[in-house]
Design goal:
Elements (H helix, E strand, L loop, with lengths): L1 E6 L4 E6 L4 H10 L6 E5 L5 H12 L3 E5 L2 E5 L9 H4 L9 H8 L1 E5 L12 H9 L2 E6 L2 E6 L10 E5 L8 H11 L5 E5 L5 H12 L3 E3 L5 E5 L8 E3 L4 H14 E7 L7 H9 L3 E4 L3 E5 L8 E3 L11 H9 L4 E5 L9 H7 L3 E5 L2 E5 L8 E3 L3 H13 L3 E5 L2 H4 L5 H8 L2 E6 L1
Parallel strand pairs: 2-14, 3-13, 9-10, 17-18, 21-22
Antiparallel strand pairs: 1-22, 1-23, 3-5, 4-5, 6-8, 7-8, 10-12, 11-12, 14-16, 15-16, 18-20, 19-20
Bound molecules: uridine-diphosphate-2(N-acetylglucosaminyl) butyric acid.
Uridine-diphosphate-2(N-acetylglucosaminyl) butyric acid binds next to helix 1, helix 5, helix 6 and helix 12.
């Protein structure tokens, strides 16, 4: 096991390159199962989550080559059984469900277990696949899906599926249905689809493979099933959450930090909130620069599906607001229990109370270092950000959570001037 030791107070300056998106790479890697031909995916970040996904693809029978961010997958033959031992390590492995069902018409995968950021059911994924004609049986912790008749009858040439749940659209649910529908005869209309840039990126990849998809990036996606897909090449989009996290690092501890290969359109809600706090941000076509300041204003945030403020940036803004002037309110509507970072931030001197799904944060002039525990990916990122400005040396344990989603975060922060060390426990 490893931990981070971060000495607060360094001033960050310079530029870093944003990695390829984790949440684009995972479903796109899964989508390579839809063809027997080789697919080449570029800018896949080197993370434990993308490693799990390539291991799952290998276990499913694909051959995978990986070098310097480029992954080549050839899934000439595919097995329908996703092994529990790998699947249980990463919830996002659920995104092999759609491609396996689409290609083979059957799939066995374990029911995902609990998750620290809240109850994460997959009922909507399953509802969508049932509308495509899947029969589903759960036995011994596994779900067995088989192609049957579509709800409207085998001869049905079309179907409309509503994917909206009580917390809004589902990202991986939309991905799964899209990946199953591309090889299902007839027209599938997904209503209440997730419009996240990662869903759009997956749709671009599928289209390059020969799929017929319209409307990705909106709430209504129309898919015309085709007989087969072919191999292709693709470069994944920049990771907007990694970029957002480095913007907050620049805000909390920076003089002038530039993010290269960033897409500011995907970060509009985050940039708007940083500007509201008083930060000057230059958003160019390929790079974004944030100018730090000694003090900043708090704000009000409510997480929402894209293009709203992302839940994956909520924890990082709690760290920012912990040091802001005035009182801030952060409401989480996507995962109402996603607040594990609050008790740890409080250990560092933050003043935070919680009322249901809202954190009320009263800014303090300074935080102090403490041993803290990383509990999930974005919560851990928030602790790293707080540590950059805390007085003394913060010890962050269980950094494997951070390594799931931030490529070489310690090296990138060191490059900007932070005093961060990775040590074996
Ligand atoms: N939901 C249901 N039923 C379902 C599916 C989802 O009720 O069948 C609920 C969820 O419990 C949640 C809401 O719908 O309340 C939205 O969840 P969603 O399905 O969109 O989440 P996801 O697709 O499993 C992806 C990202 C998450 C990100 C969420 C929301 C990937 C691999 N994961 O998860 O990323 O928080 O969308 O934007 O794309 C992260 O990167 O740290 C991370 C957790």
């Amino acid at each position: 096991m490893e931990k981070f030791l971060i000495r607060g107070g360094s001033v960050l300056e310079g530029s870093v390159q944003v990695s390829g998106s984790k949440n684009s790479s995972l479903p796109i890697l899964a989508a390579t199962l839809l063809t027997r031909d080789p697919c080449v995916i570029r800018r896949v970040p080197d993370l434990s989550d993308t490693n799990y996904m390539t291991q799952i693809l290998t276990q499913l029978g694909a051959s995978v080559e990986r070098a310097s961010g480029t992954v080549k997958v050839t899934a000439e033959k595919v097995r329908h059984l996703a092994p529990y031992e790998l699947v249980r390590k990463m919830r996002a492995s659920i995104c092999v469900l759609g491609p396996l069902y689409g290609r083979l018409g059957k799939c066995t995968i374990s029911v995902p277990g609990g998750c620290v950021i809240g109850d994460r059911p997959i009922d909507i994924h399953l509802r969508g696949l049932q509308e495509l004609g899947a029969t589903i049986e759960t036995k011994g912790g596994d779900m067995h899906l088989k192609r049957g008749r579509t709800r409207a009858g085998a001869a049905s040439s079309g179907r409309e599926v509503n994917m909206r749940g009580k917390h809004g659209p589902t990202v991986l649910g939309t991905d799964n249905l899209m990946m199953a529908a591309v090889l299902t005869p007839g027209t599938t209309i997904i209503e209440g689809a997730a419009a996240e840039p990662e869903v759009e990126d997956l749709a671009h990849f599928l289209t390059k493979m020969g799929a017929r998809i319209e409307g990705a990036g909106t709430r209504r996606i129309t898919i015309q099933g085709v007989k087969e897909l072919h191999g292709t090449e693709h470069t994944v989009i920049p990771d907007r959450i990694e970029a957002g996290t480095f913007l907050v690092a620049g805000a909390i501890a920076g003089r002038k930090v530039t993010l290269k290969k960033a897409n500011h359109h995907h970060l509009a809600a985050v940039i708007a909130k940083l500007r509201e706090s008083g930060f000057e941000i230059d958003a160019g076509s390929r790079e974004i620069t944030i100018h730090g300041r000694d003090s900043w204003k708090g704000g009000t945030i409510t997480t929402e599906p894209y293009p709203g403020f992302p839940t994956d940036m909520q924890a990082q803004f709690c760290a920012l607001y912990a040091l802001a002037d005035g009182v801030s309110a952060v409401t989480e509507t996507i995962f109402p229990e996603r607040f594990m970072h609050l008790p740890e931030l409080k250990r560092m001197g933050a003043h935070i109370t919680r009322e249901a799904a809202t954190a009320i944060i009263t800014g303090v002039p300074g935080l102090s270092a403490a041993p803290v525990m990383a509990s999930d990916l974005r919560a851990s990122a928030a602790l790293v950000l707080a540590a950059l400005r805390a007085e003394g040396e913060t010890e962050i344990n269980r950094v494997y959570h951070i390594d799931r989603g931030y490529e070489h975060i310690d090296e990138k922060l060191t490059h900007l001037g932070a005093a961060i060390e990775r040590v074996q426990v």
